[in-house]
Design brief:
Layout lengths: L3 H8 L6 H13 L4 H14 L3 H13 L14 E5 L7 H11 L4 E5 L9 H5 L11 H11 L1 E5 L6 H11 L7 H13 L5 E8 L8 H16 L5 E7 L7 E2 L1 H12 L5 H18 L5 H13 L2 H12 L18 E6 L4 E6 L1 H13 L13 E4 L6 E2 L4 E7 L2 H14 E4 L9 E5 L4 E3 L3
Parallel strand pairs: 1-4, 2-3, 4-5
Antiparallel strand pairs: 5-13, 6-9, 7-11, 8-10, 8-12, 9-11, 13-14
Helix pairs in contact: 1-3, 2-4, 2-8, 4-9, 5-11, 5-12, 5-14, 9-10, 12-13, 15-16
């Protein structure tokens, strides 16, 4: 395949045919197309976009580059959710066991931290011994046996996407809506799902801060799913402040366990319940929102959801006792308070700089080879609009050393601003998006 003319055509605003996309993706997956040519094509797509036929061809080509999970003979509905990422976003850790307890099969393939955002795999691996690098056949078997599995993208699933994802991260082409949509949907369609619920973030801490672009991404992925036999519903939710209190891998795992025990922060539980209701409705396990909510509440109240988490932890190499003894999770050597310098109204709790603080503490990666320290992170104890007095506790820093903690304390203080005026904050849930309608959220 002669690639430069294809790059040139895309650069100049033209379109590539289905067979050309297949050839490009096959060549990239088998190593015959070099990174520098794929990077040039990705940048051309970033600036020129893809028309609907091209987006379909790219998604299908990446999907076809690997194997798929097979649940064709499964009597239970196979359902999943995906979040575009944020700070403190730990809903997957609650939803997978909750939905399994309600009778669904959840084969959740997740990712690691990217930039200032945390990754579900890193949070799970805060559990000592927990394995996320499962083979495809084992993952399918576990999902059938206990109703859920949470794993990383295997070498068998969409290998072309694995390479392209890493390339985009180092070539400033992450924020391309067609490339994001094709990447997410090629992986999710490979899970053999009956339905998918998306949590698309907007706000200052999201990869796509503008609401219009978040809605465009949601509609794009819904369209890709619908034309491939996988119904998709999206909620567009706020990431102009962290979700919940805990930010950092072990801290978030601990907060997820609290949520499954009936003691999660209100904002975290509101988003979790809203997504869970959509998952149950889409799967056919609940006929209306009220029934779905009751099922989710019962899964928590009965302890069934927490038990499903324990079963998954045991099946994937961890100690199941962590579900009832979260103190088994790693804890930081140094924990210090962050206090308000002045009194007034909390005007902003900026997730992006707070996420960067966690990375600097060792809780995320600056390069792909960095080792993540699961014990470090932040507890963010205030929300925008909250009144505080001078000296009030507004956050805690969990660090490896006093030096790290003191450095982080000043940065956290700068990210939490206090003033006189009431802030304008995004609704926690902004829109519900289906293939037919985009409607403001009414709760």
């Amino acid at each position: 395949m002669v690639v430069p003319p294809l790059i040139e055509r895309k650069r100049d605003g033209g379109s590539l045919r289905d067979d050309e996309w297949r050839g490009i993706i096959d060549a990239y997956a088998n190593g015959s197309l070099p990174d520098y040519q794929m990077a040039a094509l990705a940048m051309a797509v970033y600036f020129r976009g893809l028309d609907p036929d091209e987006l379909s061809a790219l998604t299908d080509s990446m999907l076809a580059s690997g194997d798929r999970m097979d649940f064709s003979d499964e009597n239970r509905p196979v359902i999943d959710k995906h979040s575009t990422g944020g700070v403190g976003d730990k809903t997957s850790l609650l939803l997978a066991p909750m939905l399994a307890a309600c009778g669904a099969v959840v084969p959740m393939m997740s990712g690691r931290g990217l930039g200032h955002t945390g990754g579900t795999l890193d949070k799970l691996e805060a559990i000592p011994g927990f394995r996320t690098d499962l083979k495809l056949d084992r993952a399918v078997r576990q999902a059938r046996e206990i109703g859920l599995v949470m794993l990383g993208q295997t070498a068998e699933i969409a290998p072309a996407d694995r390479k392209l994802y890493a390339l985009r991260d180092v070539t400033a082409t992450v924020e391309s809506i067609p490339l994001i949509a094709a990447s997410i949907m090629s992986k999710k369609l490979a899970e053999g799902l009956d339905g998918l619920v998306l949590d698309v973030k907007h706000g200052s801490g999201a990869f796509l801060p503008e609401s219009a672009r978040a809605l465009e991404l949601a509609r794009t992925m819904i369209g890709l799913g619908r034309t491939r036999g996988c119904p998709v519903v999206a909620l567009v939710t706020a990431m102009d402040r962290p979700l919940g209190i805990a930010c950092g891998n072990a801290l978030e795992m601990r907060e997820a366990i609290a949520g499954l025990s009936g003691d999660g922060p209100p904002d975290l539980m509101e988003v979790t319940m809203a997504l869970g209701i959509e998952m149950l409705r889409l799967s056919g396990l609940a006929v209306n929102d009220g029934t779905a909510r009751s099922m989710l509440e019962r899964a928590i109240r009965s302890g069934d959801a927490l038990e499903r988490l324990a079963m998954m932890v045991a099946a994937q190499g961890g100690n199941a006792d962590v579900a009832t003894r979260p103190d088994m999770l790693p804890s930081a050597d140094t924990i210090i308070d962050v206090n308000a310098v002045d009194g007034g109204t909390v005007t902003a709790v900026a997730p992006r700089p707070l996420g960067r603080v966690i990375v600097e503490l060792g809780g995320g990666r600056r390069t792909v080879d960095d080792m993540v320290r699961p014990e470090v992170g932040l507890e963010v104890l205030v929300k925008p609009g909250q009144m505080v007095a001078a000296g009030d506790l507004i956050a805690r820093v969990h660090a490896r050393s006093a030096i790290d903690a003191e450095r982080a304390r000043s940065e956290v203080g700068a990210a939490i601003t206090i003033g006189d005026d009431a802030p304008v904050v995004l609704p926690l849930i902004g829109w519900r998006v289906t293939h037919e309608h985009t409607t403001p959220w009414e709760g």
